[in-house]
């Protein structure tokens, strides 16, 4: 089992990705996001997840540059937004993201949401970027099984990642099984359900049992389920605390208890009904 923050999983194209990273959704661009990224990298994080929609790629890029860690030791993800779908639009959007980040290549580029009637064409643009070596791996976000089936049927390159809302209230069992079968790595956004799960009695009891915080219990549960996780925080002490999950293990009964909290409840939009 994973022993440290730098441990990786090998994606289906052979690229290694850290099991845990920093998410920066809704983190203000400029100094706030730059300092959060710097704090994360200087405290051992190697994976940073942003998106063009977050409007903070420039600040993320500055944090990367100022961190003092060589670019090749880092794993940087960004995503193409819904209004940029389509083949040519996606290629343009990628160039803009790369320029804002101040990078020469990306480690992972994702389709942010499955925009109906467009995501297959968008995927073909990602394949081109991948084949040209501008990005080391390509994947998707918020895709359900039928969306993935379209990509697998129409595309040439299999997605390496499906980044979805995943937490103890939304365990995505069928989707997880499908992704495992296809060799597509699941990654959790909003792993703490925007903080909503921290007060859950089961999580609190397990936190007491293991002498850990509720957040650490949930993040450990992600990793023991072989789900990558990208908790968000802008506070250095919390960034450090979130990563302090490698000195204990949840027992099988703990895992089952947490699995049992599932109520198929989302904190974000539903990929079947989103309208943005």
Question: What does this protein structure show overall?
Answer:
The model has no long low-confidence stretch (mean pLDDT 97). The protein has helices at 31-42, 57-66, 87-101, 119-131, 145-154, 173-182, 201-210, 214-224, 236-242, 252-259; strands spanning 8-10, 16-18, 22-23, 47-49, 75-80, 106-111, 135-141, 161-165, 185-189, 228-229. Helix 2 crosses helix 3 (87-101). The longest helix has 15 residues, at 87-101. Strand 6 (106-111), helix 4 and strand 7 form a beta-alpha-beta unit. The chain has a single domain, classed as Alpha-Beta Barrel (TIM Barrel). The strands form 2 sheets. Strands 3-4-5-6-7-8-9-10 form an 8-stranded parallel β-sheet. The chain contains 10 helices and 10 strands. The active site is at 54 (proton donor). Residues 32-262 form the NADP-dependent oxidoreductase domain. It comes from Planococcus massiliensis. One of its GO terms (molecular function) is oxidoreductase activity, acting on the CH-OH group of donors, NAD or NADP as acceptor.
């Amino acid at each position: 089992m994973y022993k440290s923050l730098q441990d990786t999983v090998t994606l289906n194209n052979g690229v290694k990705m850290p099991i845990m990273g920093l998410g920066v959704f809704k983190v203000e661009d400029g100094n706030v996001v730059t300092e959060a990224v710097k704090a994360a990298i200087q405290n051992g994080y190697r994976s940073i997840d942003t998106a063009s929609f977050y409007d903070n790629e420039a600040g993320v890029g500055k944090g990367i540059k100022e961190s003092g860690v060589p670019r090749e030791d880092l794993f940087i993800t960004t995503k193409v937004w819904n209004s940029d779908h389509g083949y040519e639009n996606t290629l343009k959007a990628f160039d803009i993201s790369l320029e804002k980040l101040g990078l020469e290549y990306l480690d992972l580029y994702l389709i942010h949401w499955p925009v109906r009637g467009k995501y297959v064409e968008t995927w073909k643009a990602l394949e081109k970027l991948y084949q040209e070596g501008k990005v080391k791996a390509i994947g998707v976000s918020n895709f359900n099984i039928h969306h993935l089936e379209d990509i697998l049927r129409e595309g040439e390159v299999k997605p390496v990642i499906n980044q979805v809302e995943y937490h103890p209230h939304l365990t995505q069992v069928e989707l997880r099984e499908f992704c495992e079968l296809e060799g597509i790595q699941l990654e959790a956004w909003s792993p703490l359900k925007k903080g909503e799960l921290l007060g859950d009695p089961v999580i609190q009891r397990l936190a007491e049992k293991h002498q850990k915080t509720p957040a650490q219990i949930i993040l450990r549960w992600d990793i023991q389920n072989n789900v990558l996780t990208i908790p968000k925080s802008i506070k250095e002490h919390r960034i450090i605390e979130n990563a302090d999950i490698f000195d204990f293990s949840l027992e099988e009964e703990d895992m089952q208890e947490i699995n049992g909290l599932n109520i198929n409840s989302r904190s974000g939009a539903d990929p079947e009904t989103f309208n943005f």
